[in-house]
Every structure is written in C-alpha cells, then in structure tokens.
Amino acid sequence: MNSNHRIDVSVEVVYSPGHSTATRLFYIYFITMHNAGLQEAKLLRRHFFIRDANGFEQEVEGDGVVGEQPTIAAGQTYRYHSGVPIECPPGSMRGSYTFRAVDGTEFQAELPEFMLYEPPGYVPQNTPSYTPMLEKRILN
Fold first, then answer.
1. Terminal CA-to-CA distance of the chain, rounded, Å?
2. I need a labelling partner for 72 at 20 to 30 A (CA). Which of 8, 102, 108, 113 fits?
3. What CATH number is attached to the domain comprising 99?
4. Strand ranges, E, within 56-90
C-alpha cells in the first residue's frame, strides 16, 4: 500500500440488551478510522459481511457511514458508531471501506473481522442445535 493512502481501522463492540429481543440480538460497534497516510481522504463507500452461527450471511453496501461521507485529514481520526442485529450468536462482521485521496486515487481500508458473542446467560429462542460459544471453547 502506498504511504500516501493508508487508513487504519479499529473496532470495539458491545451487546445491547435494550435493543435486543428473544429472537434477535443487537450489538453496537464503535469504529475508529485513523488517516495514517500523507494525504487527506474522503470516505466514499462501505461493504460489510455479517454472519451468524446458523451460517446466514448478509452483505451490506452503501455510500458512506451513518449518513456521512467524511474527509479525514492526514494524521486525523474519525469515529462513528452503528448497530447490527443477528438471530443466532456467535456471529461475526468484516468488510472494507473505499476512500478517495486528494490526488484522485481510490483505495480500500479493511474493517477487521470482529465477533458478536452471545451475552452471559443467553438462552436461544430460534435454534434447537445451539451450543454456547463458551462450551465450544472449552471442548475444543
């Protein structure tokens, strides 16, 4: 990757019981984008893949994030948060962002895969073959 064009992306995620139901768990993710390149860059698009334990995968594409297409100056940081529902934990989310630098070059920044774990005490409502992730970690 060209040092002129580099956006570092990090993520934190929390389970949101207030937005969840018995058949749908909701998570809030907090994204930090740091422009580690030498040129300012405008966020154009996002492209995400969301997967749950049943193997259901959803692809999400669109312009910008949370209704914005921010321009991030070299050395600056942009933060946003959004949410994602899944029906059967554990799940995961990964993807990428497309940026355009001031020199016109379009480039990608990776959204590293992050896990959407079941909350403590979770009792599934929508799958008879559910095995909690904690048990999977112990058994493997």
1. 37
2. 113
3. 2.60.40.1470
4. 57-63, 71-72, 77-86
